[in-house]
Amino acid sequence: MEMSLEKYKGIHPGLILERELKKRQLKKRPFALSLPEYPQTINDITKGKRNLTPEVSLKIDRALGFEEGTMYLLQAYYAIKNEQLKERIQRHPDLSLFRKALFWDTDMRKLDWEKQYKPIIRRIFERGDSGEKQVILDFYGNDKVNEVVGNTSVSGSLTLFGQNK
User: Fold this and answer.
1) What residue numbers bound the domain in which 68 lies?
2) Does a structural domain hold residue 147?
3) Which of 49, 64, 89 is the C-terminal boundary of a domain?
């Protein structure tokens, strides 16, 4: 397990536990009672509804023969990945500078502005006014906008803002 820990980073440890129990042909209820732990706790962990505590993770590590701290380390990697995702989603330009009609079909606050940059840039440059285009240029930079809409569209838009290419 330790050698392949890298490929499990960011995955909820309950999913890994579920897979390990199936691989060893162990049922969750008897496994939980052998720890001793409530079966509902182990079930919630394997469904990803509950995070591992240090106490439960040590019990699982010992029962499955893992190095102590393995499952809790996976929990930490999962928490880090979730926090990074939250930060990415929270990083966005001032949304009040965009007309609501531009994003009529989606909640702008829930957009991942880093991951979904191509459709966002395309939409703003197809339907946005010069102020909205400037906000996108300031947020993403010329290189990223040029990558999506091409040099000609951006250079034409840049002249609207009084800038040179």
Assistant:
1) 5-89
2) yes
3) 89
pLDDT value of residue 153: 52
- pLDDT averaged over 10-residue windows placed end to end, the chain, 165 residues: 68 91 93 92 92 93 91 92 75 83 84 85 91 90 88 50 41
DSSP label at residue 11: S
Instruction: Judge if 109 and 146 occupy the same domain.
Output: yes
Q: Write out the DSSP string of 47-111.
A: TTSSPPPHHHHHHHHHHHTPPTTHHHHHHHHHHHHHHHHHHHHH----GGGS-GGGGTTS-GGG-
How many separate domains does the chain show? 2
pLDDT at 65: 92
How far is residue 28's CA from residue 88's CA, in Å, rounded to a whole number? 36
Q: How many CB atoms lie within 10 A of CB 135?
A: 17
Contact indicator for 13, 74 with CB cutoff of 8 Å: yes
Q: Is the pTM of this model over 0.85?
A: no
Statement to judge: residues 122 and 58 lie in one domain: no
**Nearest-angstrom CA–CA distance, 74 and 19:** 14
Whether residue 56 sits in one domain with residue 105: no
Q: 149, 142, 139, 141: which is closest to 92 by C-alpha?
A: 139
Q: Are residues 78 and 23 in the same domain?
A: yes
